[in-house]
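2024-03-11 09:14:02 INFO worker-7 job=invfold-0412 stage=load source=structure_tokens
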């Protein structure tokens, strides 16, 4: 049995750090883990997709359409784009933030309306204003760790293990802000 997590966002939002935090936590818990940046541009602005697969034995890092147990989405439109990968009965955790892609910025397209409603119709969807919570914690850059905290709250894995994974993967100079961001997400997930 393998569990599949898909992390989606925009370059610069910290999706790769989020995948490292989740991956290191799962390794500590004794799982076979594969983490893969599948496609995207890790520089600011481009779509980024990362897969985390774990279980007793994981043979491939790739998640096909309809196979993701969980999607962790750092941006609304990216959540909508990732929806075909979510399995029936899967869960999606979504940051309400909107980051306009280049066609919207140039006026060639419009940012779609009603994304939250569409996601809620098709999946078990949890929405969070992770940007505001990250700013409350001390940095807008901590959106990723707010979302990790939200995920952690419903994971069934003890909080201390998650905090240990954050400490292991976040640079010391950014640790205090990120631990506060984790707490913000955890608290939201407890409601």
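2024-03-11 09:14:09 INFO worker-7 stage=emit residues=191
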């Amino acid at each position: 049995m393998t569990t599949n997590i898909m992390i989606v966002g925009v370059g610069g939002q910290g999706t790769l750090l989020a995948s490292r935090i989740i991956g290191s936590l799962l390794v500590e818990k004794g799982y076979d883990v594969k983490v893969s940046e599948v496609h995207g541009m890790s520089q600011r602005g481009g779509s980024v997709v990362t897969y985390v697969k774990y279980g007793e034995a994981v043979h491939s890092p790739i998640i096909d359409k309809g196979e993701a147990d969980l999607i962790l989405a750092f941006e609304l439109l990216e959540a909508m784009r990732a929806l075909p990968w979510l399995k029936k009965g899967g869960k999606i955790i979504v940051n309400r933030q909107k980051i306009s892609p280049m066609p919207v910025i140039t006026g060639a397209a419009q940012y779609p309306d009603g994304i939250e409603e569409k996601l809620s119709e098709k999946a078990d969807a949890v929405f969070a204003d992770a940007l505001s919570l990250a700013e409350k914690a001390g940095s807008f850059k901590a959106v990723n760790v707010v979302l990790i905290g939200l995920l952690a709250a419903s994971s069934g894995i003890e909080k201390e293990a998650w905090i240990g994974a954050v400490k292991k993967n976040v640079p010391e100079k950014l640790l205090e802000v990120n631990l506060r961001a984790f707490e913000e997400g955890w608290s939201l997930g407890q409601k």
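2024-03-11 09:14:09 INFO worker-7 stage=report msg="The helical segments are 15-28, 76-82, 102-105, 115-122, 130-137, 143-153, 159-169, 172-189."
2024-03-11 09:14:10 INFO worker-7 job finished
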